Amino acid sequence: MSTATQNHIGRKISRIRELRDMKQEVLATALGVSQQTISNIENSEIIEEETLEKIAEVLGVSAKAIQNFNEETVLNIISNSFTSNDSSTINAINVQPTFNPIDKLIETYGEKEKLYERLLQAEKEKIAYLEKLIK
Q1: pLDDT given at position 74
Q2: Element (H or E) spanning 84, and its range?
Q3: How many CA atoms lie within 13 A of 97 on its CB side?
Q4: Which residue intervals define the domain HTH cro/C1-type in the entry (predicted)?
Q5: How far, CA to CA in Å, does 25 sit from each of 31, 36, 37, 61?
Q6: Which is nearest to 12 in space by CA: 63, 48, 49?
C-alpha cells in the first residue's frame, strides 16, 4: 500500500465496508444520507471527525480503527489465525460431516423409489386415458 493510500480515510472506509459485505446504500440509509454522499465520502482523503465517528459506529468499529486500518495487517491476521484440524495437510479444510453418509444413501434410494412409483402411476393413468379415448 502506498503512503497516499495509507492515509486516504475514504478508501479505508470503503474497504472496511466491503469487508463487512455492506453496500453503499445500506451505509447511506443508516446514516440518513444519499448513496452519492457515501460515494463522495469514500473518495475523500480527509473526513470530518464527527462524520467519521458516525460511520465507524455503523460499521461496528472505532474511528481509530478506521484511521489505523491497514489491509496487509488484516490479511496477516487472517492467514495467521487459520487453523486446520487435519494434521496431514497444511492449511486444508477438514470436512467431517455431521450426518451418517449411509443414512443419506438409504434416504436417497427411498426418494428414488417414491419418484419411480409416481412415474409408474402417471403412466398407468395415461394408458387408461388413451384407452378411454380409443373406445
Answers
A1: 63
A2: none
A3: 6
A4: 13-66
A5: 10, 9, 10, 19
A6: 63
Percentage helix, strand, coil, to 5, in the chain?
Answer: 70, 0, 30
Q: Which amino acid is at 108?
A: T
Question: CA 17 to CA 46: how far, in whole Å?
Answer: 17
Eight-state DSSP code of residue 97: -
* Distances from the Cα of 135 to the Cα of 32, 122, 128, angstroms: 73, 20, 11
Q: How far is CA 111 from CA 100, 108, 118, 119, in A?
A: 17, 5, 11, 12
20 φ, ψ (degrees, to nearest 5): -85, 0
Percent of the chain having pLDDT more than 70? 77
The domain locations on the chain are 3-81, 98-135
φ and ψ at 21, to 5 degrees? 60, 45
pLDDT level of residue 111 (50, 70, 90 thresholds): very high
Architecture of domain 3-81: Orthogonal Bundle (1.10)
